[in-house]
Each structure stands twice: as C-alpha cells, then as structure tokens.
Amino acid sequence: MTSSVQTIAPETKAVVDLDAMHRAFASFRETNDERLAQIEGRLSADVLTEEKLARIDRALDETKSRLDAQAIERARPRLALSEKSAGDASANEHKAAFRSYMRSGDSAGLKSLEEKAMSEGSGPDGGYLVPIPAETEIMERIAHISPIRSIASVREISTATYRRAYSRTGPAAGWVAETDARPQSGNQQIVDMTFPAMELYAMPAATQSLLDDSVVDIEQWIAGEIDTVFAEQEGAAFVNGDGVNKPKGFLAYPKIADASWSWGNSGYIDTGVSGDFPATSPSDILFQLIYALRAGYRQNARFVMNRKTQSRVRMFKTTTGEYLWEPPASLGAPATLLNFPVVEAEDMPDIAVDSFPLAFGDFNRGYLVVDRRGIRVLRDPYSAKPYVLFYTTKRVGGGMQDFEAIKLLKFGTT
What we know:
Blueprint: H1 10-42, H2 47-75, H3 89-104, H4 108-116, E1 128-129, H5 132-145, E2 153-157, E3 161-167, E4 190-196, E5 198-202, E6 205-206, H6 208-212, H7 218-240, E7 255-257, E8 266-270, H8 284-292, H9 295-298, E9 302-305, H10 307-313, E10 325-326, E11 336-337, E12 340-344, E13 358-361, H11 363-366, E14 367-380, E15 388-400, E16 406-410
Parallel strand pairs: 2-14, 7-8, 8-16, 9-12
Antiparallel strand pairs: 1-14, 3-4, 5-15, 6-15, 9-13, 10-11, 11-12, 13-16, 14-15
C-alpha cells in the first residue's frame, strides 16, 4: 500500500492566503459595522462583538504576515542558479577562490586576486570580498526584506562618504529665447549634504562538517544567514538611528509643526488629542496629513506605520460608510489607505502620547540610502571552537535628503 503526500505550490498557497485575507476583511467590516451600531444604539459595544472583532483583526495580521513572508521567499533568487558571469574567467576564478577560503581557510587564491586588483583593506584584517554575483543577490534580498530601503532612494558608492549639493529652493528654471541669457536665481540656496557609510556586521557560525559537504552551496548559505539580520538592523536604523556609527533615521531629525516648517526639520501635523486620534471623524486628520504634502510629492507617496497602528486605521470609514483601508488587490501588492500604498515598518513607534507612529510622503525623494560597494567575510575558526565563525561586514549609511518630501503625524497637541 502506497501513500502520497500532496504538496501545495507556493504560488497556489499565496493565492489561497490572499483570498482568505479578502474574506477576513469582509467579515471585519461586517463585525465592525455591528459594533458601531451597538455603540450608537446603547453607547457601548457588546463584549462578544469586541472579542470577535479582535480575533478577525489578528487573523488579518497573521494572513498578511504569511503573504509578506511568501513574497520575500519568492523574491529570493537561488545564488547557485544565478551564474550571471558564467563566461567571465576572472569572476569564476574569484568564486572558486572564495569557496576554497570559506571551506578550508585557504586564502592564497583570494590574496593573489585582491593584490592584482589592489583592493583596499583586503587580507586578514579586513576579510575578503564575496564574489560580485553573490553580493548583488544579497543586496536584492535585503531590498525585499527591509521596508524603508525598498521605498527609499539608493546610491552605491566606492568611498567612505557620499556628498551631494542640494538646492533648498530648487534649481533656477524658466522660459527663454534661443539667445537669451540663462540667469541664476537670486535666492538660490545650495547646501552641502554628507552621508557617511557605517559598518554593519553579522557573524554566522558553521560546523566544519557543513563546510566539508560539497553539496552545500557556500554562497547560498552565507546569503541565507545574513540577509534577514542585515535587513532588520538596517530597518531599525533607517527609522530611528541616531547617526552615531549607524545611519540617521528619518524620525531622528528635529520635528516642527508643519505651519512653521523650515529646512532641516521634519514637519508634522498633530491629532489634537494626547496619544490618540480625534474621537469625532478621526480619518479627517489623515486627509490633513496628505494635503500637508505638496502635490508633486503626493504622486509617489505612501503611508508608513507598524502593524498596531494599521490595526487602528483599518476601522476608519468615510462619511458615506466606505472603509478607507483596503487589503492587497493582488499578490505582491500592498494594502492601501485612501488609495495610497501602506508600508509596514515594525520599527515605527506605537501610538502613545506625543509619539510619531505614522509617516506619509515620497520616501524615494525624501530619504537616501548609501551602500559602499563590497561585502567582506573574515573566517574565524578559533574564537568559538569547534564552530567556524564568519565575520561578515557591509558599509551602509542613510539620512534625509529632502525635508519637504515626508510629513509625520504627531499624536498630541502642538
């Protein structure tokens, strides 16, 4: 007698979860409408209705988490199959030398290659560069996992610091005839902005038996060990980092009421209620936040918040009864709020007194991520015997580049 195990294809599972999310949200709307009717009729909601709504809300979050995880897994290319430079003899030589170093500690091949390339910082102190195809795939994986990186502007650099000149008033522009002079604006204000790349590290461990196993793809293994931890560290820094040995997060800059906004500060709209949305027409404050942003930035704008905040805005309705939050319309698509995409960043603060749990803006224009090219690995077989540690580093920086492009919602009064 034979038995067979039926497996569900990942794409099919994602479709099932997406359908389940839409059905759950339909149930959420129905239950929340019932709760609101109970409040209107007797000034309080039934406890059982509240509990049912909370269960559905958790189910929505859990389903969205599964969809996000599946999207990340689908986006992860298999390094072993990504032979982008299969015909490049020098690239193949580097791959072979790197694998030899990772498995046995033999660094002769890498030393020779990096000496020929005159690579700065190579050798025992700085580790060795992973092959370029592997580095490219690792960075693509991180971009899919790190929420802010996925919506920010990203620049690759080869030096320790990225510098750029930025016009606070915008470049001079106008209409002229063919032979007319092109005058420079009299009030042109240029600022010099610097974005240093800081060192981020991870230290995965392996047994020697794993390294000796020729079936194990070493580049695939190291990518799988570091992509998530790098993305989590980056994600926290891009939101709240203080700029000391890490990127400066967009919430770390001075904040000022948007009516008094000036360059170098993040403008905010306040809810007018300490630690909460307004009790009456709470969604109105979201419209104020949207229209605090100039029209040119709204075209590519999105909301950024954590899951708890999203759970609150999920209940908001228009005056005609339509819900403002909508689940993803298709696989890989984000949920939307007032037709703008919602990006979940769990490092955003929760709703609390005078906190800033919700941001809205064009992050591609507002926030800059800089990557210094090169991911390095230093093999350490001594510090944690019998395990082999791989001290893996990359350099990354970040900061605000356009202070007009992102607005915040403060849960308090000005």
